[in-house]
Amino acid sequence: MTGRLALPILAAAVALAAAPSAQAPTSAVDSYATAVRTYVATGDTVKALTPIQAWAKPEFERAIDALIARRDQALIEAAAVLQVEIAVGVVMLSPRSAGTHLELGEKLIRSLRALPGPGPEAEFSEKWYAVAASAFLMVNDSRLASSFISRGLQLAPGSLDLRLMNGIVDDLEALSLNPDDSKTGVQRQRIATARTQAFLRARDRYARLVKDAPSFARARVRLGRVLWMIGQAEEARIELLRAQADARDPVQQYLSAMFLGALYEQEGDAALARAWYEEALSLAPASQAATVALGHLDVMVDRPDRARALARGLLSQKPVLDEWWTYNGGLETASLEWLRRRVRR
Amino acid sequence: MKALWAPSVLAGLALVDAQAPVFRSGVEAVRVDVSVMNGTNPVPGLTAANFVLIDRGVPQVVDHVSVDTVPLSLMLVLDTSGSMSGERMTDLIAATRRLVQSLKPVDSTALLTFAEPAELVVPMSRDRAPLLAALDGMKAAGATSLYDGLFLALQMRPEATDDRPVALVFSDGRDNVSWLSKSSVAEAIRRSGVITHIVELEQDQVRGAGVNAVSLILSELAEAGGGRRWSATSSRDLRELFAKVLDELRSRYLLTYYPTGVTREGWHDVKVTLKGAGGDVIARPGYFVATPQ
Question: Model confidence over B150-183: pLDDT tens digits?
Fold first, then answer.
């Protein structure tokens, strides 16, 4: 499972205490460095952070300033990743605390540029900012997400991942706007218009990315889904089928199969919908989303027996991460994993 | 009078499936689970003569009415997303524990939790011990996959039993990661024959979806299942609300009739009203009979 699922155990505690703890400054600095090293050595965020879970912002600031002064690139990079781990863990409970932890993390990232030598790879900054921005997408805060994307693009200009994030901001904003939530016709119309505009912005961003980088499967899959969401079914089919054919990444193959299933289901072609959902399930055999999609199709075609068998099969297994949740939830898990591997190498 | 209509499908004697009607002497028995309330109080003492039941526009004769004589198959469908951490989870566990301890020995219960993944923590059983033991293991983490979790819970309804299938859903927020849409899961609820009650712990307003919007969504799902949405403003209210849901379930009338003058397959709109008595009638909006394969 992702850090998002694991971290909230400690999240309440690390959501920044209101007042500084009684820990002496020197000891606090050492404690932070120890936490970073524990994180690097074990990959266990909870274990690393437990000794400093009562810290307030001034203690983190002091410790991070002191760590920067040591000019140890590996340690600073690891601390930056630890800060992003904390932000991801606490963002649902306290977006403000997450923002504070990310600002401290950004201080670490920027300090790397002042170090002698080649400095960090642009890819490190790119991935870090992608995860930082995505933390705010988890709580539908597109303003802060966009802010971190812009800052990341300053350090990693032209980054495909960060440009994709800009599209995802619009994409998820559109999905958060549901006209059915409105009580009046005027409100409904206003929200429907805003939703369409956000989808169109996402479509245009994804389309430019696909034009610039035709093999960028994530962008093509997202383009296909957004096209479907705005009713451009034929264009959507073309993009999704191409993504299905070209993508080497099983995650993108899975997602494009799911979206093709949904497209055909909406068109009333239950046989093709079933075929694509089954393809998705073959790519991700323990996928909850694919199981539910296929099961619901079975219910609608008067085969509740098959739906039950699917559900029972799924629920007899240990749950696994479904890439649909990642797609839909905002968190850049692939980039987070990259950062984890990088600091633990 | 508020008129939210609906029945569930069942059979007379040898029930094979709680959803599919069973034929008896060429006529299938349909069971309609009906709540009659006066405000928050159940209306007692009604008989078959008090109910007017219309199936696909055709008036039917209610064969018999029973109250609280049929065991419950209660699927607990509980939200364990990240927002449920701390006191909320403690209160939810305490409320659920009390509810389970209040069930009759003949009732069955199961526990399915949902955050992003849905997990069947304890399958349907009359043995309370595994479920009570599992409650303390519930942890809050992740996003809210209510629709997918509820859909999966519906598929786990008991077969080969004449128990009354009930889902008691608890959630503190809006679905934000399910594959299914609200309308898709509502249709699955309608077809399932499972009485669906939803207890909502109201949240602060979220961008794009005010509290009212979430409540409306949950009300729509509950109505599809012939149940109610119950609202709590604090997790401390859950124990009392769960007890009220159980009281409501215990006081529901089970109407049995043998449809005449209507074709068998497909969706049946069913309407239930009262005569010679007052109260709000809540039941499922209809039932679905699948075409034989």
Answer: 999 999 998 877 889 999 999 987 888 999 999 9
The 8-class DSSP code of residue B156 comes to: T
A319 touches chain B (CB under 8 A): yes
A303–B151 C-beta distance less than 8 A: no
- Six-digit token pair at A230? 């705005």
Region A50-55: mean pLDDT is 88
- CATH H superfamily, domain B72-249: von Willebrand factor, type A domain (3.40.50.410)
A295 to B178: CB separation less than 8 angstroms, yes or no? no
pLDDT digits (tens, 9 = 90+) for A232-280: 999 999 999 999 999 899 999 999 999 999 999 999 999 999 999 999 9
How far apart are the CA of B121 and the nearest CA of chain A, in angstroms? 9
**B264 has a chain A CB within 8 A of its CB:** no
ipTM of the prediction: 0.86
Q: Are B201 and B236 in contact (CB under 8 A)?
A: no
Nearest to B218 by CA among B266, B187, B178, B175: B175
Q: How far is CA B42 from CA B36, B52, B126, in A?
A: 6, 18, 27
Q: How far is B291 from chain A (nearest CA, A)?
A: 7
pLDDT band at residue A14 using 50, 70 and 90 as cut-offs: low
Nearest to B290 among A11, A302, A308 (CB): A302
B178 interfacial to chain A (CB closer than 8 Å): yes
CB contact under 8 A, A140 and B140: no
pLDDT tens digits, one per residue of A163-201:
999 999 999 999 888 877 676 788 889 999 999 999 999
Q: Which residue of B has its CA nearest to A327?
A: B177
DSSP state of B61: -
Chain A residues closer than 8 Å to B139 by CB: 9
pLDDT of residue B18: 30
Exposure string of A42-66, with b = 16+ CB inside 10 Å and e = fewer, is: eeebbebbbebbbbebebbebbbeb
